[in-house]
Backbone:
DNA sequence: ATGCCTTACGCAAACGTTTGCGTGTGGAAA
DNA sequence: TTTCCACACGCAAACGTTTGCGTAAGGCAT
């Protein structure tokens, strides 16, 4: 088992100094052509690769982006990561991914760990607990130490930094509008508890659409789901003897759960009840009937976030003080769950 | 914007040497109690955190595990990552994730990048292209440089290292047995092209089950799908005027696609045709009808893989020469798609 | 007063790089 | 023969740690 070869070893073998080897590999004119060729041949033979750690220490940068997301087993977040990776790799950056598991503590630990030398900057979607706790000191501290942070999806208004979001309210409004334009009058919304920023925003968009259409908003058509793991029974109870003709769900799981409940109740989708979800994942695509949904373009978000971060990392000082918020357009992906029934 | 504080800065402020600070923070008896307290107070005040990069360089290890998977937007792989993360974090390891995007070149690049200082060892599921190309030099080289590699799921028989797999053939056999025990006679299989190891193994298990039941295997009931993105139409053609009473699919997507095709053809699941898939993902769980499936216990695989790797990383030299293969038990998750119809 | 031991600290090397600058050697010009 | 200039290379510092060992100061015993 041959260990990794270093400059020092090459230098020793060739009986030259370390600096000569280093310069030779970089084709420095300081070094004679002859020596250069010898060194390079040797380096290739022994498969020399510069040690990233040493380079990081010397350059005081790691060429690594830290991504912290609330859940790793989550379609939307993985699409975002896909986008980040794409841009990062193009620009020679590595990506480290950590999940906070929606735990505040784990978010802090991961961030501190990566901040102490492992990453140059962060792309972050905050944990539920963090949103609830409203404690952002770890983010502020990281930024204070000169490491840029880009927030996406679940952002924090109070923290001043680059952000990538979708216009949640607008997306929800568009979706609701679509239901209204189909002639639906009794549109229920399945949403989250208020401290989840995106849930609240989407609810607002729903309400805005109703008002614009002068459809009375009715408290009893709003369900704020607490326990996401148990949403199906909550939805079942909620829908029981409620005469709705459409459902807008603020995420994919709620939409699917609603569809299942309706199916059990013998209702037809879209004839009896139309459904629109949020987040264009595989569930919406493959469900029968396939579900109309508001696409968040996760990969795009990742791409934009990575670009913002790398701009900050490589930008001149002028740009550093300026923070941008990129708003990704949502789009309504129309599928069977809102197909107009003929006649 | 205060930069990260280093030992040197603390030393300067307190007018002591760097080594004194370092030792004081480690509560060395070499340092007087008085100095120790002073240093620690100062360190806490300035939120000192040792620089991981410097430590990595000094210790010649990074406490980081590199995970390379074929796809990041993939439920099964993310569950595996979840398992890896769990164990890794418990043991103080970081996890770097890279996706090869099923490209051989990207797999090599990622591996070399991480191997040159960023990770101490690898957990890897090889890209399709790599399996097709049968070029494993990057894996061998990495191991030759003293970095342990654990292969999972899509493994390579020719490479000698730790492995975590499921018994694909057995899982498939169990699934097929279940269909047979339900009284199904004309069981089709939707599988992949042969060079995908898991596809082939699962097909073998299917055939084995048929033989054990003395059901004739019929070539025309085997569909090897080439273009996974277009599987629905392939399946549709395949199923057209074929009188099958059960379908075994070697992955989740094929199972769902089959279910959709059957639905379009007006067939009832499970009454007309029973379906079993492979991989217990969200699609199988939420589909109507919910799909019976062979669970691979992805998180378990991740846990085991991480344990194997960390054992190698921290084990004494005796253990290093010995390679283990952990076989994770599959289990059949019975759902509606194979419910026995009464009578 | 001298010697010795303990206490409390600093020095320096090491991990693997990069790079500005200093320097020895050779040849050519005067 | 002396002087000068390239050329080709080496030295050393720096990045932030850790740690074995050396050492100054002080106290105590003789």
Residues:
């Amino acid at each position: 088992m041959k260990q990794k070869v270093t400059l020092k070893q090459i230098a020793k073998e060739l009986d030259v100094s370390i600096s000569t080897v280093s310069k030779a590999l970089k084709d420095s004119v300081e070094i004679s052509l002859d020596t250069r060729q010898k060194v390079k041949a040797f380096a290739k033979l022994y498969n020399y690769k510069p040690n990233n750690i040493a380079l990081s220490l010397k350059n005081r940068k790691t060429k690594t982006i830290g991504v912290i997301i609330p859940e790793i087993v989550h379609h939307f977040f993985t699409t975002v990561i896909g986008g980040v990776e794409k841009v990062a790799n193009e620009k020679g950056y590595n990506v480290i991914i950590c999940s906070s598991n929606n735990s505040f503590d784990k978010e802090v630990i991961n961030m501190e760990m990566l901040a102490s030398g492992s990453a140059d900057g962060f792309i972050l979607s905050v944990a539920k607990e963090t949103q609830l706790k409203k404690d952002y000191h770890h983010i502020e501290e990281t930024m204070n130490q000169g490491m840029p942070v880009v927030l996406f999806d679940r952002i924090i208004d109070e923290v001043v930094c680059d952000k990538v979001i979708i216009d949640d309210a607008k997306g929800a409004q568009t979706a609701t509008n679509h239901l209204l334009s189909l002639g639906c009058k009794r549109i229920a919304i399945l949403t989250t508890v208020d401290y989840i920023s995106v849930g609240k925003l989407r609810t607002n968009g729903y309400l805005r659409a109703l008002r614009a259409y002068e459809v009375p908003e009715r408290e009893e058509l709003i369900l704020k789901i607490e326990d996401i793991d148990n949403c199906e029974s909550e939805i079942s109870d909620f829908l029981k003897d409620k005469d709705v003709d459409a459902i807008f769900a603020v995420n994919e799981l709620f939409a699917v759960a609603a569809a299942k409940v309706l199916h059990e109740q013998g209702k037809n989708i879209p004839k009896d009840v139309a459904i629109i979800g949020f987040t264009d994942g595989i569930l919406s695509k493959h469900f029968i009937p396939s579900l109309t949904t508001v696409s968040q373009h996760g990969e795009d978000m990742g791409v934009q976030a990575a670009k913002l971060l790398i701009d900050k990392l490589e930008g001149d000082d002028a740009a550093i003080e300026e923070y941008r918020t990129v708003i990704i357009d949502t789009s309504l992906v129309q599928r069977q769950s809102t197909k107009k029934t003929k006649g």
Q: What stands out?
A: The mean pLDDT of chain B is 93. The longest helix of chain B spans residues 298-314. Residues 16-20, 23, 30-32, 35, 54, 56-60, 117 of chain B lie near DNA strand C (CB under 10 Å from a C1'). Chain B touches chain A through 54 residues (CB under 8 Å).
